[in-house]
Amino acid sequence: MNSTKTQVAGIRFYNENYKYNVKSIRKIRQWLVSCAAMEGKRIQELNFIFCDDNYLLNINIKYLKHDYLTDIITFDYSGDKSILSGDAYISIDRAKENAILYKQTLQKEVKRLLIHGLLHLIGYSDKNEKAKKLMRELEDRYLEKFCNESSHR
């Protein structure tokens, strides 16, 4: 890499073992940047990788030593806690199941997982009931923010 060239910070979306097309990418990027800013953070690099259950299960086993399905795994690469950098792997298989279970659209469930991953990078946990409740409240607040911003554009 040329050290004189500045890398543009950003939010990117990838597919591994699953093809998922993000709708309204520009709006989603702006929303995530805005949510991070409301938490006093700036996104340097954030990669969302959409995959299937098996792909994410293998990551869960290999890196976290957990042998069970999950909907998202986030890896934080931030050195400076005010600047966010990381990868978030999202199982679209789990997102589909959750959408049915919670009577949501797949798109809304994916947005919930996107903000969930961002909240983990910011430093929020969901390891106990109190933390899960806070995480859900923040997800709901930021999902509402997305809906309000989208309706005004």
As a percent range, the share of strand residues is: 15-25%
Helix share bin = 40-55%
The DSSP helix count reads 5
Q: What is the residue-mean pLDDT, rounded to a whole number?
A: 91
CATH class: Alpha Beta
Task: State the end-to-end CA separation.
Answer: 38 Å
So, CATH architecture? 3-Layer(aba) Sandwich
Number of separate structural domains: 1
Structural category: alpha/beta
Count every beta strand, where a strand is a DSSP E run of 2 or more residues. Answer: 4
CATH superfamily descriptor: Metalloproteases ("zincins"), catalytic domain
Shape: globular
Contiguous runs where pLDDT drops below 50 for at least 5 residues: 1-8
Largest sheet: 4 strands, mixed
Give the CATH topology.
Collagenase (Catalytic Domain)
Radius of gyration: 15 Å
What is the H-and-E element order? EHEHEEHHH
Major sheet: order of its strands? 1-2-4-3
Outline the structure in words.
The longest helix has 23 residues, at 129-151. The radius of gyration is 15 Å and the shape is globular. It has a single domain, classed as Metalloproteases ("zincins"), catalytic domain (Collagenase (Catalytic Domain), 3-Layer(aba) Sandwich). Helix 1 (25-38) links the parallel strand 1 and strand 2. It has a 4-stranded mixed beta sheet with strand order 1-2-4-3, with helices on both faces. Helix 1 crosses helix 5 (129-151) and helix 3 crosses helix 4 (106-122). Residues 1-8 have low confidence and may be disordered. The protein has helices at residues 25-38, 53-64, 92-101, 106-122, 129-151; strands at 10-16, 42-51, 72-76, 83-91. The chain has 153 residues and is α/β, with parallel strands linked by helices.
